[in-house]
Amino acid sequence: MKSTFPQCGKTQRGVALLVALLVVALATVLIAGLLDRGGLAAARTRNALRAQQAQVYARGLENYAAEVLVRAQGQGLGYDAADSVWAIPLPPTPVPGGTIAAQMSDLNGRFNLNNLDPAYDTGVWRGKFVLLLTALKLDPAIAGHVVNWLDATAPATIDDQFYLAQLVPYRRAARAFAHVSELRLVAGIDGDVYATLAPYVSALPEGTPINVNTAGVPVLMTLGANVTQEMAQAIWQQGGAHFSGVDQVQKAQPALAVIEHPECFDVRSNYFRARGLITLDGLPFEFDSLIERRSGPGGGIHVLQRNRGGD
Fold this sequence. Notes:
alpha/beta; five-stranded antiparallel β-sheet; two-stranded parallel ribbon; 8 helices; 9 strands
């Protein structure tokens, strides 16, 4: 009769080997998990520190923008143009941890959506907004939707039914626009319409005029119903307009018989957007600041709004 003890010993050694392999595998998984968590924690810490560093750089860019705006005002030209000192971009500049770059643009060169507020507008700005929509080949009915969105006293309309029928229902703002991106909530404005309209509009305090020196061709077509694209391009001068007064526009463009409501236009600007692009350790950070430059007693430079990220 053969003994089974040797076979039992082999089985035990096999089980022990399997247990050992299982322990090694579990240890490997645990160590890999700890390393992965440690890497993620380190990345989160790095990103948080870089975000704080980017915020500090962004404030520095605001101070730089303020100095440039004061310098431009000190030149005493009496007008702002697309090649003014403030319009010169800051090229990518090395800083500890990465680079910073900045660009300033004139928001007075755009159509201010808040001028359409019925509490302020008597219909003049609405008419000019229709001209802008027409120049951009957009539906003029959009003007009515935007006005209704702003109107705090308007009764319920079909627009309200549209808003309440959305997947996530909401109501019209019945207040001024805080940011141009709010247009995406307005009836009749989809992604394509917004992409077409957004570069030519702003959300500023009501009553802000349009700077004819920095306005684009579609915005210049709001000078009057008879202004063609060719006339607007001649006024625009490839972005090199330097009108010292609104009356000079007619002298430069004789075909422009009359500027409709010249009080809606100016050659000076008060509102600017400072955009900073900061790259740290390969991570991009984009900041926007709405800056107001006030003239006269009690003036100065004031930051009205800050945003992070692009439009």
